[in-house]
Design brief:
- The protein is of the alpha/beta class and 230 residues long.
- 35% of the residues lie in helices and 11% in strands.
- It is built from 7 helices and 5 strands, in the order E-H-E-H-E-H-E-H-H-E-H-H.
- Strand 2, helix 2 and strand 3 form a beta-alpha-beta unit.
- Helix 1 crosses helix 6 and helix 6 packs across helix 7.
- The chain is globular, with a radius of gyration of 17 Å.
């Protein structure tokens, strides 16, 4: 059989942003015996250093293949991460923050679903979290469950009984729990970038919501934070 036609192997497609959460998910999937295929997106985000971080994490964790897909979500705008005219907030606010990117996880999971079907992978991993997170609607368990139902309705594999599972192993973990789990699995968090406005060298601002959650997680876990700041 060819590499892509053999569905007997335990394969997984994993959304890898280059941040703390997704790096942990790759390690978790490896620990469960999956051959890991990672996917990142160059979608017009201002924090492009995360793409280099994703490549470092993929290489360090020995994934089978790392794919970067180009999108133009900044053509839609509507988010501080894709529209330079909208400032990244440096203090928590009320409601869904302006760093929410419209439909981002729906789009990302859809492309991961397509690749999974081609690879013969039955599992798609995403590092969403509903405990220590920014309040994005597409990080909730209800969204993950609904997408899984859609995936099995909308694909040839699903119709033929080879159903997909959308796995979100961090869903109910605190950021400290995620850090502790990753440390046990040997994740090198010094390779990751979480900041929404990291510079080209991957140095963090230390002020945005993502930086705050990351720093609090390391502190609560009692683990030294390798984040570099500008």
């Amino acid at each position: 059989m060819t590499e892509h036609s053999n569905i007997a192997e335990k394969r997984a497609v994993i959304l890898l942003s280059g941040g703390l959460d997704s790096a942990t998910v790759v390690a978790m999937a490896h620990a469960e015996g999956y051959r890991c295929y990672t996917m990142s997106f160059d979608y017009g985000q201002r924090h492009r250093a995360e793409l280099h971080a994703a490549e470092r994490v993929a290489r360090d964790q020995g994934v089978v293949e790392h794919k970067v897909i180009g999108l133009n979500l900044n053509g839609i705008g509507g988010s501080a991460l894709t529209d330079s005219s909208i400032d990244v907030p440096e203090a928590p606010g009320e409601g869904i923050p302006v760093t929410y990117v419209p439909a981002r996880n729906t789009v990302f999971l859809s492309l991961a679903l397509g690749w999974a079907e081609v690879l013969g992978a039955r599992d798609i991993f995403i590092g969403v979290n509903a405990v220590d997170y920014s309040g994005y609607p597409d990080c909730r368990p209800e969204f993950v469950e609904a997408f899984e139902r859609m995936a099995n309705l909308a694909t040839k594999a699903g119709v033929e009984g080879l159903g997909f599972r959308i796995q979100a192993p961090l869903q109910n973990l605190s950021k400290a729990d995620i850090v502790k789990a990753g440390v046990k699995l040997g994740v090198d968090y010094g390779l990751t970038v979480s900041c929404y406005q990291a510079d080209d060298q991957g140095r963090a601002c230390g002020k945005c919501d993502s930086c705050r959650l990351r720093a609090e997680g390391f502190a609560a876990a009692g683990v030294s934070d390798p984040t570099r700041y500008f």
